[in-house]
Specification:
With 553 residues, the protein is of the alpha/beta class. The chain contains 17 helices and 19 strands. Helix 8 runs parallel beside helix 9 and helix 13 runs parallel beside helix 16. The protein is globular and about 80 Å long. Bound molecules: alpha-D-glucopyranose and calcium ion. The site of calcium ion (CA) has 5 residues, from loops.
C-alpha cells in the first residue's frame, strides 16, 4: 500500500516543458502542529486536526505542507528535541493518523513534508541514554564527549546559540558532551559512520511512508572542528549578554556538504525534495547549499529575505542577486523562529495593505514560496507580557532582551469565537484580541480581506504560466519607491507593480526592450492601485498598492 502512495506521486517527472519538477510549481505551507487545529480539545493541535483542515488548505491554493517536528519528544524545544525519529508523539496522534493524513492529503493533491532534526537528538533518545551510560557503551561515540580542560572547565569556549555554554558536564562518566542548542539537545557525532547510516535509515523510513520530502533542521551545525579549537571573539555582546564569538570552528564546516550530498542521493531514490534551514550571511553562501553539481538541497531557504527592510531598492537588489545565483530560489517571509511579517512591517496606518503587498511580492517571484500558517489571514505576534508567561526556554533565559518565540507560534485563528475556534479547551498559548478581526471565518466573507487577497494571488500563480515558469526581469530599476518586474515565459508576460512606500505613486513602463513596441495590459489583480492608461502602461498606486497585469502586443 505504501509503495502505491509513492508511485502515484512520481515526482521526478517534469511538470512542464522546461523540465521543472513538482516542487518548483508547488506552494509550500509550514505549519506548527501544536498550533494548527486541535481535534480532541486538549489545547494542543494534532494530526487529525490537520487532516480536518485539508479542504481549507486546498481552497487556499497549497500544494505541500511542511509539518514541524511531531515525533515523540520531551518538548523541551517543542519537538526539536526528538526522542524517537520513527514514531509520532501521542499528543499529536499515532502513526496510523499520520498515514491517514498522507492519504487524505493525497486526495486533495497535497504532499506532506516532515521536519528532520539532523544535528541533535533529545537527551531522552535511547541512543543518548546508552551513550551517557558508560565510556564504553555501544553508542558512546554517537555523540561528542570530551574531557574538560581542568576541574569545572569545559573543553573549549564554544557557546550554545540558546544562551548557555555548549558543553555540559555529565558526572556519571566525568566528561562533557557538546550541545549547540539546549543541554537537552546533545549534538550527534556526524563523523561516526554508524550515526550517518542510522540517520539515513530514518529518511528511508519516512519516504517509504509516503513523505514527499524533508525540511532539514539546523544543517550548518552538523560538524565541529575535531581539534575543538576555541572560537575567536567578536565585537560586542549577544542577546544573552555574552561576549560575541565568531563561530568559525563549530559552524559551516565543509563536511556539511558531504552529508547533504549523501542525504540527497537517498532522497533521489525516492523522488523526494530536500528543503534546508539555511541561515546565511549572503547569497554567495546560500548558493553553496545547492551543491556544485546541484546535488545537495533543492530548496535552500532564503532566510535573508525575512530580514529585509520594506524598501524597493533593498528588495530589488536582493532578488536580483538570488535570481542570478543559478539555483531555484526559495522565498520565505517568516517562520516559527521569526517575528510574523505583519508585526515586522506594520506602520500603524496601512497594516493590512502592507500584508497584501508582501503577498503580492513573495508569491509572484521566480521560485518556490514557503508560507507560514496564519500569514494569509494577517496573524500578528502575540508576545508574552511578562516573563512568567513565557513558554519558550530561550525567552525564559533571555528575558527581556530575548522574549522567545511564543509570539509567532500562537493558535491558528479559525473563527471570531472563543479561542479563535482552535480548541474548546485551554490553548497552550493565548490567542490575541486581534483574532476577532483576523480569522478564516470572518475573512472568507470579505472580498477585501488579506485572506481573499492571498487566495487571488495563489490562484493567479496557478493560472498564469509566466508566474510559475517565467524569467524575472526587473523594470524601472532606479525607482526608489515602486518595485516592478516582468515575469516572462514564451509569449506570456505578467507585469507586477508593488508600491513599497507610504505615498501615492504613479509609474509608467517602456517595454520596448522586452519586445513590446505597443503593449496593452489586462489587469489580473489590483489592490489600492489602478491602470491609468493600458496602452501607455501607466499605473497609479496608493500606499503599498499592488497591480498585476497581463501584457500583450
Ligand atoms: C531550528 C528550528 C528551531 C529549533 C532549532 C533547534 O533553528 O527552526 O525552532 O529550536 O533548530 O532544533
Ligand atoms: Ca489535541
Amino acid at each position: 500500500r505504501r509503495v502505491l502512495f509513492r508511485s502515484a506521486f512520481a515526482q521526478n517527472k517534469p511538470v512542464d516543458e522546461q523540465g521543472h519538477l513538482w516542487w518548483q510549481h508547488a506552494v509550500f505551507y509550514e505549519l506548527y502542529p501544536r498550533s494548527f487545529a486541535d481535534s480532541n480539545n486538549d489545547g494542543i493541535g494534532d494530526l487529525n486536526g490537520i487532516t480536518s483542515k485539508l479542504d481549507y488548505l486546498k481552497q487556499l491554493g497549497i500544494d505541500a505542507i511542511w509539518i514541524t517536528p511531531c515525533f515523540p519528544s520531551p518538548q523541551i524545544d517543542f519537538g526539536y528535541d526528538v526522542s524517537d525519529y520513527l514514531n509520532i508523539d501521542p499528543m499529536y496522534g499515532t502513526l496510523q493518523d499520520f498515514d491517514t493524513l498522507v492519504q487524505e492529503a493525497k486526495k486533495h493533491g497535497i504532499r506532506i513534508v516532515l521536519d528532520f532534526v539532523v544535528n541533535h537528538t533529545s537527551d531522552q533518545h535511547k541512543w543518548f541514554l546508552d551513550s551517557r551510560s558508560s565510556k564504553t557503551s555501544a553508542h558512546r561515540d554517537w555523540y561528542i564527549w570530551r574531557n574538560g580542560k581542568g576541574p569545572g572547565q569545559p573543553p573549549n569556549n564554544w557557546q550554545s546559540i540558546f544562551g548557555t555554554p555548549a558543553w555540559k558536564y555529565d558526572p556519571a562518566t566525568e566528561q562533557y558532551y557538546y550541545h549547540y542548542f539546549y543541554p537537552e539537545q546533545p549534538d550527534l557525532n556526524w563523523r561516526n559512520p554508524q550515526v550517518q547510516e542510522a540517520m539515513f535509515d530514518v529518511t528511508r523510513f519516512w519516504y517509504k511512508r509516503g513523505v514527499a520530502g524533508l525540511r532539514l533542521d539546523a544543517v550548518d551545525s552538523l560538524y565541529e572542528d575535531p581539534d575543538l579549537t576555541d572560537n575567536p571573539l567578536g565585537a560586542g555582546t549577544d542577546k544573552f549578554g555574552r561576549p560575541n564569538r565568531i563561530e568559525k570552528f563549530n559552524r559551516n564546516l565543509p563536511e556539511v556538504h558531504t552529508a547533504l550530498q549523501d542525504l540527497r542521493k537517498i532522497a533521489d531514490q525516492y523522488d523526494a525534495v530536500l528543503i534546508g534551514e539555511t541561515w546565511t550571511p549572503d547569497v554567495e553562501a546560500l548558493k553553496k547549499y545547492y551543491g556544485k553539481h546541484s546535488n545537495e538541497l533543492q530548496l535552500p531557504m532564503d532566510l535573508m529575505f525575512t530580514t529585509l527592510k520594506l524598501s524597493a531598492p533593498v528588495y530589488r537588489q536582493h532578488i536580483a542577486a538570488l535570481d542570478a545565483a543559478g539555483g531555484w530560489p526559495t522565498y520565505v517571509i517568516t517562520n516559527h523562529d521569526i517575528v510574523r511579517s505583519y508585526s515586522r512591517y506594520a506602520d500603524g496606518l496601512h497594516d493590512e495593505q502592507i500584508a497584501k503587498v508582501l503577498a503580492g511580492l513573495y508569491l509572484t517571484l521566480r521560485g518556490t514560496p514557503i508560507m507560514y500558517y496564519g500569514e494569509e489571514i494577517g496573524m500578528q505576534n502575540n508576545d508574552p507580557k511578562g516573563k512568567e508567561d513565557v513558554r519558550d526556554p530561550i525567552g525564559i533565559l533571555g528575558w527581556p532582551l530575548e522574549k522567545g518565540r511564543d509570539g509567532e507560534r500562537t493558535p491558528m485563528q479559525w473563527s471570531s469565537g472563543a479561542n479563535a475556534g482552535f480548541t474548546t479547551g485551554t490553548p497552550w498559548l493565548p490567542v490575541p484580541d486581534s483574532a476577532k478581526t483576523y480569522n478564516v471565518e470572518t475573512e472568507s466573507k470579505d472580498a477585501n480581506s488579506i485572506l481573499s487577497f492571498y487566495m487571488q494571488v495563489l490562484r493567479l500563480r496557478k493560472e498564469e504560466p509566466a508566474l510559475r515558469e517565467g524569467s524575472y526581469i526587473a523594470l524601472n530599476e532606479s525607482d526608489a519607491n515602486v518595485l516592478s518586474y516582468l515575469r516572462q515565459y514564451r509569449d506570456d508576460s505578467v507585469l507586477v507593480v508593488l508600491n513599497l512606500s507610504a505615498e501615492k505613486q504613479q509609474v509608467s513602463f517602456d517595454l520596448t526592450h522586452q519586445g513590446f513596441a505597443a503593449p496593452k495590459t489586462k489587469t489580473l489583480l489590483e489592490s489600492a492601485a489602478a491602470a491609468v492608461d493600458a496602452a501607455a502602461v501607466t499605473v497609479t498606486l496608493d500606499p503599498y498598492g499592488v497591480f498585476i497585469a497581463k501584457v500583450t502586443k
